[in-house]
Amino acid sequence: MKPRISLLTLGVDDLQRAVRFYRDGLGFETEGIVGTEFDHGQADPNPTDLTIGHNVSSKEEVDAVMRQASAAGAAIVKAAHETFWGGYAAYFQDPDGHIWEVAYNPKWEG
Predict the structure, then answer these.
(1) Is the pTM of this model over 0.85?
(2) For residue 45, which of 3, 94, 101, 1 has the smallest C-alpha distance?
């Protein structure tokens, strides 16, 4: 999975589990963890607050990201499929319940 997110702040129930999933499992780099290297923040996690869209360059990349997410411990919500808008997408849920859409849109340059 090639991370393309500049900044992401999510409230989590278990910080170490989230670090294992995002940093160790999905490969997102971090310059520090709030509550460890940085001052404690306060959050009220609610997985229905948002979904996260991760756009990739091909159908094959959607499949690869989904395999990586599953291996990291994500729950597959909806397997990869052709979409009504002409793309290809799949959905997974991270260990804290946040929903991710992994999508390829042939109409977008990427």
Answers:
(1) no
(2) 94
